[in-house]
Amino acid sequence: MRPAATVLGGFRHPVHDSQRVFRGVLDAMAHPGRVVGLDAAVATAAPLHRGTVALLLALADFETPLWLSPSACNDAVLGAIRFHCGSPIASDPSGAAFVVAATAAERPRLDTLGLGSDLYPERAATLILQVDGLGVGREIALAGPGIDGTARLAVDGLDEAFWAERHALEILFPRGLDVILVDGEAVAAVPRSTAVEA
Amino acid sequence: MTNAMREPLAGYNFAYLDEQMKRSIRRAILKAVAVPGYQVPFGSREMPLPYGWGTGGIQVTASIIGAEDVLKVIDQGADDTTNAVSIRQFFARTTGVATTERTAEATIIQTRHRIPERPLGPGQIIVYQVPIPEPLRWVEARETETRKMHALQEYGVMHVKLYEDIARFGCINTSYNYPVLVNGRYLMAPSPIPKFDNPKMDRNPALQLFGAGREKRIYAVPPFTSVKSLDFEDYPFDVQHWDHCCALCGAADSYLDEVVTDDRGGRMFVCSDTDYCGERRTAGHVGAGTPVALAAEAAE
Q1: CATH number at residue A103
Q2: Is the pTM of this model over 0.90?
Q3: pLDDT at B294
Q4: pLDDT interval class at A5 (50, 70, 90)
Q5: How many domains does chain A have?
Q6: What pLDDT shows up at residue B121?
Q7: Which CATH topology does B19-136+175-228 take?
Q8: With CB atoms 3.0 to 4.6 Å apart as the test, which of A51, A124, B5, B212 could cross-link to A182 if both were Cys?
Q9: Domain coverage including residue A58
Q10: How many CA atoms lie within 13 A of B96 on its CB side?
Q11: Measuring CA to CA, how many Å separate B218 from each of A145, B52, B57, B130?
């Protein structure tokens, strides 16, 4: 038997840290396109960014099946999620409440994920997508609730196909996908209510 | 009046709720923000207050509040009414956060039945206590049906209800909990605020969260979101007007409460928002009458 590996540390102050991380992501979700620092001093295991680990520690638990993209399915990440969150690991992304993609290349096609139903739109998945940079790179125009007029979000390392797939989901509202982009400790949200420039 | 932070009560988790409950409420809040006006079900818990005393709002506040927040709680616009005092003390004890009566200084405002007169700013969060979250409940009792009506955006029946008001009374007689359409999609109950406050919800820079404890629903209106009160072209939406100004501060633009001052018909109209009224009086505004003067007039 192998000696037990050290499990990645969680929040230093679970109560206050998860509250602060939640308020950060609430601020991001209420202001689509706003880049918000999560201020989360957590350890991380490659390839997950600190923001991704903080989001999972704050929001995931036994009620939320989690799908991890292939490069994130390593022992350190899985061990930490089992220990701190207890989330069931989904083998099929369509059944996951949180879908974590370590890179844009590893993300599933957006229309294959759980989009909720017209009767229960809240059952749609949240996609946590790691990118190369927020505030730099290609600019996209956003409009909708939470935005005074138009917002511009610059994202580096996200392909054109992503925005085209995301735009194609808009007609399905209130079904849809809530996306949280992560770069290091920073996050920006694009909820389903946001119209993106195709 | 602002009370500084203090040590929270020992033996309870921060803000009373356990962490798993907070997480599930937080996930519901995020989905509610993503689908403005849609009522997200949540596993409402028993609270140390009875249903009907704001348990939904308390659970929402408990899930969002942090040590750095400054909390204001109002009931019918006033900070010093029973419900407001109990809830403010509950959070002061279980979280130790600073509390205030000043709208401008608060980061979180929990409210029953009013929106403060002072415009809310970006970064503020207002939490409404909601008794009946379903605006269609009085025209369709079945949850399965109202859920379908929301899914299909089938809201004609609400216009019929408003039309029946016009047919019977000559005007839309609904004066509180006046139905609104959020972001052009979901019909929403604004909670029992007077319709006077409805226009304040429209494109408000603050985040608006709604919690219904007994009915186990959370919903939200993100900042800068269109909130339109239902009406007809020939019967446009209108708010209450008064022939009086506030007797204490002279405000002509605020929601007024009628207060009986004696047993001889003496009464006065005063601002329902006590912080707004107090701020105006501090700034030197004076109303036309005091209760004593009015009582004397009535006695003559």
Answers
A1: 3.40.50.11310
A2: yes
A3: 46
A4: low
A5: 1
A6: 97
A7: Rossmann fold (3.40.50)
A8: A51
A9: 14-197
A10: 12
A11: 17, 15, 9, 9
Percentage of chain B lying above the pLDDT 90 cut: 88
Query: Cβ of A171 under 8 Å from any chain B Cβ?
Result: no
Which residue of A16, A22, A61 is the best one to mutate when testing the B interface, meaning the one whose CB has the most B CBs within 10 A?
A22
Q: What is the pLDDT of residues B69-84, one digit of tens each?
A: 999 999 999 999 999 9
- Cite the active site residues of B: 37, 246, 249, 271, 277
Q: Identify whether the C-beta of residue B73 lies closer than 8 Å to the C-beta of residue B79.
A: yes
Taking Cα atoms as reference points, which of B282, B281, B251, B283 lies closest to residue B269? B251
pLDDT surpassing 90 at residue B158: yes
Give residue for tokens 């290349």. Answer: A105
Average pLDDT over residues A151-171: 96
Contacts of B300 (CB under 8 A, 6+ apart): none
Please tell me whether the interface predicted TM-score (ipTM) of this complex is above 0.95.
Answer: yes
List CB contacts of A24: < 8 A, sequence separation 6 or more.
A36, A37, A38, A39, A40, A187
Under DSSP, is residue A23 helix (H, G, I), strand (E, B) or coil?
Answer: helix
Q: CB-based contact (8 Å) between A146 and chain B?
A: yes
Query: What ranges do the domains of chain B cover?
Result: 19-136+175-228, 256-299
Residue A16: list chain B partners with CB under 8 A: 14, 66-67
Q: Quote the pLDDT of residue B265.
A: 85
**Within a domain: residue A50?**
yes
